[in-house]
Amino acid sequence: MNIDNIELEKSNCVNSPCPVEATLNVIGGKWKGVILYRLLSGKKRFNELRREMPKITHRMLTLQLRDLEGDGLVKRTIYAEVPPRVEYELTELGLTIKPIITELYNWGKNYL
């Protein structure tokens, strides 16, 4: 899609759902994009994610993972072991966001 098509579609966001708003509702906030970025490299356990994001609280990581799971972007797998092992990974839908997360990374790198 080029910029001209975006200009034409702006008017569609007035009386109908806006695609940008929908996207930001799913990946917006301080941590969801970072979680998705961390999961691009593959499955991770909860504590692996915590180590990679030391500023996030246990509760916030739990809530954000639940939201992403509820939106169908993240899959949670619980293994029947003692102690229980839980892994998180991107779903097929979650993998489709890779170009967006990659561009956010590139933009942020240039900005910094």
TrEMBL record:
Where is each HTH hxlR-type domain found?
18-112
- The answer on whether this UniProt entry bears the keyword Ribonucleoprotein reads no
Q: Keywords of this protein's UniProt record, alphabetized? A: DNA-binding, Transcription, Transcription regulation
Question: Its Gene Ontology molecular function terms?
Answer: DNA binding
The protein's matches in InterPro entries, at most eight in alphabetical order, are given as:
HTH_HxlR (IPR002577), WH-like_DNA-bd_sf (IPR036388), WH_DNA-bd_sf (IPR036390)
Q: Which PANTHER family match?
A: TRANSCRIPTIONAL REGULATOR, TRANSCRIPTIONAL REGULATOR, MARR FAMILY
Name it.
Answer: Transcriptional regulator
The organism's taxonomy opens as: Bacteria, Bacillati, Bacillota, Clostridia, Eubacteriales
